[in-house]
Amino acid sequence: MAFNYTLPLRVVQAILAILVLALTGYVAHWYRDDTVYASPSQINFLIFTSLWTLLALLYLTLAPWLMPKAAHKYAILAVEALTMIFWFAGFIALAVWLGRLIICSGNACRSSRAACVFAAFEWLMFAGTFALAMMHVLRTRNSASTKSAANMEVHNGVHNGV
After folding, report:
1. Considering only CA atoms, which of 123, 93, 95 is closest in space to residue 104?
2. SS3 43
3. Burial (CB count within 10 angstroms: exposed 0-12, middle 13-18, buried 19+), residue 116
4. What span, in angstroms and rounded, lies between the C-alpha atoms of 116 and 80?
5. Which of 44, 87, 102, 132 has its CA at 20 to 30 Å from residue 78's CA atom?
6. Model pTM score
7. Is there a contact between 73 and 133 (Cβ–Cβ < 8 Å)?
8. CA dihedral angle for residue 51, residue 53, residue 58, residue 63, rounded to 10 degrees
9. How far is CA 160 from the centre of its chain?
């Protein structure tokens, strides 16, 4: 039986989302308490993206297992694509904003830079799982099956006998 690599990928995606959420939350808190400015929209967008990712991971992890009819292959592909696009837009926007700062020092700046790096890795992780989902959709495009790919499910199921 082949190793199911999806659960470790999903765990890494969740850890990266929590890291970005914590780092960007710290930066937003710093802006609220220590400056007269509101937190930048790039930071706010990455907070949203982190929360979206945690909800998306719940769907991507639990739907194929608990609600197979809700785990339609096109729905999974759409959630993967949307999440990948969010992370790409978020880390690029934050990188551009950080690159335009004249002065960037202190814990808030270091946290913003770390959040940008982790967001880029998160985008790479979702680009990989999106590619896997896309390969499944392309492989099964001529079949009537709407099931998600077996190798994208996080559990191996119970096999009787064989």
Report:
1. 95
2. helix
3. buried
4. 20
5. 44
6. 0.85
7. yes
8. 140
9. 35
